[in-house]
Amino acid sequence: MLLRRRAAAKFDDPSQWLFTDDALQQATAQAVAEHRARRLVGATVHDVTCSVGTELASLRASAGFVVGSDIDPTRLAMARHNVGDVPLCRADALRPITRDAVVLADPARRGSGRRRFDPRDYIPPLDRLLDVYSDRDYVVKCSPGIDFAEIGRLGFAGEIEITSLDGSVREACLWSSGLAEAGVHRRATMLNGAGQVTDAEPDDCPVAPAGRWIVDPDGAVVRAGLVRHYAARHGLWQLDPDIAYLSGDRLPDGVRGFEVLDELGFSEKRLRQALSAHDAGAAEILVRGVDVDPDALRKRLKLRGSAAMSVVITRIGSGTASRATAFICHPSR
Questions:
Q1: Assessment of whether the complete model's pTM goes beyond 0.85
Q2: What are phi and psi of 67, to 5 degrees?
Q3: Beta pairing, strands 246-248 & 307-316
Q4: Are 129 and 93 in contact (CB under 8 A)?
Q5: Cα within 13 Å of Cα(3), Cβ side
Q6: Which of 139, 202, 248, 254 is 20 to 30 A off residue 233, Cα-Cα?
């Protein structure tokens, strides 16, 4: 019952599902799994690390045919309970038992209570997975912090999709070349209604002083390295060429932004005085490129006003021209 209550954060109705603690931690959130399934509509799919069946539950509604396998007999037994209408068998992901089907894999990235950061330490190892299925279309779920250069050194040449849900980056997903959109090598997908952006789009984004709004792009955009592409799509510009904060005179639809009320060279004394002048009693503090602990700074500011404000602190410029700048803002929501 405890695991089912925890599962409610990931799934619409887990009330009848069986989980192990490790399987639940690694399980794909339902909204993310459904997004992936939509990219595989009509395909024959073999989930070679099906675990307790969370991916299969989404795939069975859209794939032409789906089958699951796992090496762990306990998880496989739970999958039979959870998705009993899907064909299942026990098998090692590194020993193919199907032909032609799109392979879906979600290697374990935890072991003995610790995270595994080297993809060669995944279970099964990512380098071996890519080698075994090099002649197949495949989709492999990875940690969102995976090193893109390392993936390239393993021979991967398809599309890396970074997906966020409710503003939180959930995963990186490797799509083999046969499943990738032509010309796309990196994609940011935001499942909060903000859509997608890819590296096939223009990235001609200027650098200019702050306009009416400051935008902190979704983490998927930043992690995918698509800040300039996102800015170009929405008519925004960068405050600094090396910092992810963007600015513009209008907000993209559905995006939270920060309306600039004041701009000042950053120091705690100046910031405290400026916030006092704006009657600030609470401050959300966002920081990029400056060594500031937002929580510690907030405590030291000792705000006593009645207004809720946002403060964006960032570095602008480089070398001797570099300066820490604070923007006092009103959040859009």
A1: yes
A2: -140, 150
A3: unpaired
A4: yes
A5: 13
A6: 139
